[in-house]
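Table 4 source record.
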Amino acid sequence: MKRNIYILSALLAGAVGLTGCSDFLDKQSAAYDSDGFYRTDAGLDEGVTGAYALVPFNLNWDVPPTMVQDVYSPYALQDQENTTIGAGGGLTPDQSYVNSYWAGHYNIVARANSVIDGAKTDRSDMSDMYKARLAEVKFIRAYAYYNLMTTFGDVPFFTSSVTPDQYGAGRTDKKEITDYIVAELNEIAESGDLAWKTANRGRTDRAAVYALISRYCLFAGSLDFGGEGREYFKKAAAAASEAMAHRHLAGKFNDLFTLAGQEKADVLDEILWEIPYSTAGSRKVHRTRYGHTSRTVGGSSVRFPSSLLACTFECKDGKRIDESPLYDPKKPSANRDPRFRETLLCHGDTMQYTLSGNKAVLNVYDSKTRMFPNPRKPNDWYSGNNLDVSGVGASFAKPGNGLLWNKYNTDLTESFSESSIDIIIMRMAEVYLTYAEAKIELGEMDESVYEAINAVRRRAGMPDFDNARKGNQDLMRQIVRRERKVELAMEGVVFTDFRRWQIGDILNEHPIYGQPIEEIRYEGLTAADVPNFKTTQRHDINDVANFEHFKDKLTARDLQRHWEPRFQWWPIPRADLDRDPNLTNPEGY
């Protein structure tokens, strides 16, 4: 019996960084008694902590999924040519990211089901803490299923531990999963078992439950599950409204992504759920910057934002770059929405690269980069093809399209390559925009909708949107979709949104165009070299930039970029297909 206790403790070891129990494995757990491990307060607490610990599983370069999900959308790129799986490249049942994403989330489901199965729910004298932990683990399971369903479509759905005879059960319809989970989450929210705001960072709370309901229902409404799209939009708006009545936006956008900022009361009010990291005790850090920005000047990055995202950011006058007199193709980051520089870096921008104060000027053309105030000889850029970083490497901005991620990278109080900034999973800005989008889709455009969008814009330092949009459903769709992209980029939301909006075809109809070619550089561009967003009404509403009229001046990569309807959903991993042929995707995989 004692041996089994220690096996379970080992399975829960990933939670040590969250609980602070450095001697957790050195003693028999007080959580166990003859009534069953999860049937005690201490046992359930440890079990739920173990479920939390599985949420930030390593998807790529020691970075949890929520930080790299958007890289698997058309708004981002990977280092190698034509491998960006958001555009279908490498999207196969054998793709490592596909397998890791599937397995990581089903590990969460398995742990949650195990805890729920072992919990004591047949007593009327459960403690408040016990009720809260049981609600939390159901929420964690719901979060995992949301990511699975929005990525793979219909998926195997189990609400208790799986038995061998269930391995051939096949897929469960997305609507059935959504209805079950939404009903369960509503029950949790209405029970009052969770506080509106958690006292323990990293744990979920009642506002987060409503936020997750709104995510599920917005997705179901957008894809019109069962022909009930309007009902789902109503539920999305109602759930978002509940959260908005109790939680609010932080005062400053960038405070959300720095260590000092995340200690502020207004920031903690906006953050609904986060992955906690810490430098105390056993150091718990992530390597968000690895891949997003090379750990060495002269090395190479492996994940990049694309120009399709960069072109979405308005100029500071509140107009899109094809409509604003402030946009200068020679200096694309000048006069833009402040969130542009908080989210992205491009050629010519300066970034502080070391804690000692050294700065680097990003350069995608010259063979050397300049660092200052360090007087040493400038570091050499490695020689490398603009489009291929295999081999010895290349400029860390060159292999993409002249852009780097900057969100979470502006904090300079820690080592550049190791960070203990908490990673946000859900926050109120998303909820505001979900409320607005759901109401717009219902045709219920009123001042509450306009204020929700403008509140997010004002916080970023942007003007209210043009009043001419009010009452026009297409123009309101355009502005709320634009805000979701520029506000929530690199937070895992864009990854799901492009599926909801069903715009993969227009996002992937051309190669990705980036910085001007060597012979022209930015200095050689003219006022006419501005993307066209009005190829069709769909392109316009979704801010899809077209560079065809000046593409000969630009570098291009992912030349095989294309879209097929089956790319809407990822394929089931090969091992699971072999075990259960019923998992075959009827839409192509």
